[in-house]
Amino acid sequence: MADTAWEALRGNPLRFFASLWLLRTVAYVLSGAMLGALCLVWLPAALVLGAVVAAPALTRPLVALERRRVVLLGGAPLQDPHVRPDRPGPIAWLRFRYAEAVTWRELAYLGLHATVLLVLDLAAVLLLSSPVLALMSVNLTTTRAPTDPATGTDVVVAVLIGALGALALVVVGFFAVYAVPVAAIAHAKVAHLLLAPGSGETVRMLTRSRARLVDAFEVERRRIERDLHDGAQQRLLALGMTLVGAQLEFDDRPEAARALVDQAAEEAKAALAELRELIRGIHPHVLTDLGLPAAVAELADRATVPVTVTVDVPHRLPTAVESTAYFVVAEALSNAAKHSTATQVSITGGLTNARLDIKVRDNGIGGADPTAGTGLAGLADRVDAYGGTLALSSPPGGPTILRLELPCTG
């Protein structure tokens, strides 16, 4: 199943027209026409009201909406490459924004949206509605007087004209329906070109993600230290005290010593189970011994939602790649069970040109937000640090698709 409108249209056009992708492209074009008209009005107003200087602040909501609107065509919202200013205050913010190349690309995009892209969207809408307009404008009256009898020639001519008109409507309707996704995809390509992070901005985002990753590792180290201190260490301390008590009772009260030894055995089992659970959270045993496909299959077996797994990895991957992919899949399954009300999850993956591609798809209600404490934000930083990408597509109503790509060199 295709994940984007372009993949669906390129793969099987007939199936595309019978799917929801057509409605999503129509929604993208219609909303683009409305927002283009809004840009046509608001962009000059923002330049005047903001005395040109404050135009980036006044047009920021429109740009943010455009970055999120691309989810209608599949894929994740476009990332915002802006960097937070070092100094507070509106003056520092504007000065910093004007120094960024993305600010000028955003203004250029809004200008295109108010002109060229608006014409493109309106042309697609007009072409889509042309068959309906043609039917509404058909004049079925004739110039003959009502009392004139109809001849056989008149009937034949009327049938031929009707057939040719119907054929013309079918041809125009086909091109009209085909033009809408083409216009939507072309519009989205321009949005990706101007609003997505450039190469230099990607490097800065990667630097920031690595800094956040260092902080996350420090937080994780403290969590492990706390879990060891509050959990396993306390159980081992209780085990030691129980054994000391059994040693003191061994000579005088053998039965009491036996009971204490049995208690110590149970405490040792509990401590061992807790240590195993802690180690599994750091690096699962099955991942170390059997590799990623077996580890993902074990995750699927433990999941509370039915999961189908198709992961084809012919050889072992670098440890960092396997570990990152494992925890991304684990987090995706956890989110599907907790938040999505999904009844089916599929995990597919394999190697393509020395890159691991993993896709987790569920049929839940959608609307997932990686910034709402789902754990994906930290994993995205980890993926960025290894030069990979983590994309989330979760429109309201579903489906939710999490796609991971990681380089497997090294």
TrEMBL record:
SUPFAM superfamilies named in the record: ATPase domain of HSP90 chaperone/DNA topoisomerase II/histidine kinase
Domain of life of the source: Bacteria
SMART domains recorded: HATPase_c (SM00387)
UniProt keyword list: ATP-binding, Kinase, Membrane, Nucleotide-binding, Phosphoprotein, Transferase, Transmembrane, Transmembrane helix, Two-component regulatory system
GO terms of molecular function: ATP binding; phosphorelay sensor kinase activity; protein dimerization activity
Species of provenance: Actinomadura luteofluorescens
Residues spanning the membrane: 26-59, 107-135, 155-180
Gene Ontology, cellular component aspect: membrane
Enzyme Commission no: 2.7.13.3
A Pfam family recorded for this sequence: HisKA_3
InterPro entries according to UniProt: HATPase_C_sf (IPR036890), HATPase_dom (IPR003594), Put_sensor_dom (IPR025828), Sensor_HK_TwoCompSys (IPR050482), Sig_transdc_His_kin_sub3_dim/P (IPR011712)
Listed name of the protein: histidine kinase
Classification via CDD domains: HATPase_UhpB-NarQ-NarX-like
Domain Histidine kinase/HSP90-like ATPase residues, every copy: 320-410
Coiled-coil blocks: none
Catalytic function, reaction form: ATP + protein L-histidine = ADP + protein N-phospho-L-histidine
Keyword Ribosomal protein assigned: no
